[in-house]
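FW: tagging you since you asked about this chain on Friday. Here's the raw sequence from the shared folder, copied in full. Didn't touch anything.
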Amino acid sequence: MRFHEVSAESELWVGELRQVRIERTRVLLLRTDAGVFAYADRCPHLGVVLSTGTLEGNTLTCAAHQFQFDAATGEGINPTCLRLHPFPVQCKNGGIWVDISRPPPAPALDQNDAEAKRDR
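HL: got it, structure written out here
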């Protein structure tokens, strides 16, 4: 594992989400009452940037299609079949550190998108 410092802990407030870049990877960094979490900054549905969405309590909502995820686990709330790609996080020495050594998978396509690509 190779951790990169991405922010000071004091600069990320509870209820805040933001995009940080590590090398060429976009990372969604967020903080809830449960702690600090990092995910690939793209919705597993169509790859839309999640950092433009909203975080209310422990629910992260994608701005594009209103898909919702548990901010602490990455598990899909609506729909339940999708999951965010997590990155390991450490908070130490006043900093937030993220490891991106395991890249995220490509986003899933919904049925309509799959049919459109097949028909081309």
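FW: Residues 29 and 67 are 18 Å apart (CA to CA).
HL: agreed, and The two ends are 41 Å apart (CA to CA).
FW: great, closing this out.
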